[in-house]
Amino acid sequence: MSYVIGIDLGTSAVKALLVNKEGTIVAEASRSYPLYHERSGWSEQRPEDWVDATHEALRELAANENIDAGAIEGISFSGQMHGLVLLDGEGKPVRNAILWNDTRTTEQCREIERVLGDKLLRLTRNPALEGFTLPKILWVRENEPALFQSAESFLLPKDYVRYRLTGRRHMDYSDAAGTLLLEVAEKRWSDEVLEAFGLPASFPPPLVESHELTGTLLPEAAERSGLNVDTKVFAGGADNACGAIGSGILSEGLTLCSIGTSGVILSYEDDKSKDFGGKVHFFNHGKEDSFYAMGVTLAAGYSLSWFKKTFAPGESYDELLAEVGGLPPGAGGLLFTPYLVGERTPHADSSIRASFVGIDGSHERKHFARAVMEGITFSLNESVDMFRGAGKKVERIVSIGGGAQNPVWLQMQADIFGATVVSLENEQGPGLGAAMLAAYGCGWFDSLEACSAAFVKYASEYVPNQEASNAYVGLFRAYQQVYGATRELNETLAAYRA
Ligand SMILES: Nc1ncnc2c1ncn2[C@@H]1O[C@H](COP(=O)(O)OP(=O)(O)O)[C@@H](O)[C@H]1O
Ligand SMILES: O=C(CO)[C@@H](O)[C@H](O)COP(=O)(O)O
User: Fold this and answer.
1) Complex ipTM, two decimals?
2) Which positions make up the binding site for substrate?
3) How far apart are CA 302 and CA 296, in angstroms?
4) Minimum-distance ligand to the CA of 345?
5) CB proximity list for 385: less than 8 A, separation 6 or greater
6) pTM of the entire structure?
């Protein structure tokens, strides 16, 4: 029997999946690592924590008594996007990584807009958003000049882990797309953008396809992980690209909803000239020469995990959510906007913060929990709405991520999106997508589509309940008004944040 491993380097944990040629997940291992929020809006991780956690997770899989490590032919990656890992001349990180959900870079975003004007959207196909990598590079240069002086190059999170496993530096197109340094449609680093900000051509690493072989394991990495030194290491992709691959989103007309720490609505695109005017992200897919458009809710699953940590510590998600299914749409007139760390789509705003609106003396914790789930889903529905407005059909949505583990939430998604929602048999979207890239890279299949036909197994379908859908139309309109009504208030309150 032969195997591949898909490694999903997430925000809360790394998860590694051991997958056989039938696409069955035969073992999985996970290790979590801390997030550091030194100030409001800041979010960092230690690259060394990712490396240690990845080795440990791999070691657990390789030590599986039923598996011969020599039968593990290849590994590949899915990674949290945009995070900046600045490296010195010896390839060592000069500081902690600044993550995708860090919003300290509003000034640098305005600077990028000032310097590049219309060129920004034309070249990179994306607007300047706080989460993207270029603003983070500029922030370090402006605020930590001594550290920046020692920086000679950068990588993204999963590329750094791969570098530590193979000793070789690369970045795949799907992750490079989120740096604001890539000409997405042309698939090349943008000399114009690099020059405009005085960055040398050697600053970004060589570009590769997601299924491309990037090397084999270094002897010390083989020893630490327990894998064979000749295990093939394939580039992998951005978590959302891998989530899409692992859900079979490989052709036009297919849409993904992912509720992890962040939440995304992603729509496959063949046409590289498709223009959404920068309202949604436009990135390269992990499938060669294809693309996707995507709207992002910054604090999707994070809103629920914050609520659980703050108001139900020690309870499981199933316990916390046990009673929400018994409440009607609208949680008894309680609305929540999930802006705990600012927002991206449709309001690129790092100052906005979350609200509960309509708190009534009769409300109990279950009403708040339902309102949080509905608010997250309303935020994602803004992206669904935008895609429909741009002429795309959104009729069937594959739902993945931690949020897809709760059947009440899956039905709520169908009711709010007004579309059939489909879950996966073994909810492991991005990790499975990474394993599929390794399986395709190893030559097990002629195409990612053939691999998807064998590996991706759909489970239940949730069809919109007409009565609930109708109720949500009015509630969604009310939800959409909360942003405008609380924007200025939050600007005032920003001065009081820690
Ligand atoms: N049983 C569950 N029911 C509902 N939501 C859940 C459940 N388990 C996890 N979640 C949600 O999923 C999120 C984690 O999703 P995950 O895909 O593991 O995140 P990431 O890849 O960002 O680390 C949590 O923050 C939580 O909101
Ligand atoms: O910033 C984005 C996409 O643009 C996020 O989707 C990150 O890629 C992290 O995702 P999760 O940890 O929520 O999976």
Assistant:
1) 0.96
2) 81-82
3) 13
4) 2
5) none
6) 0.94
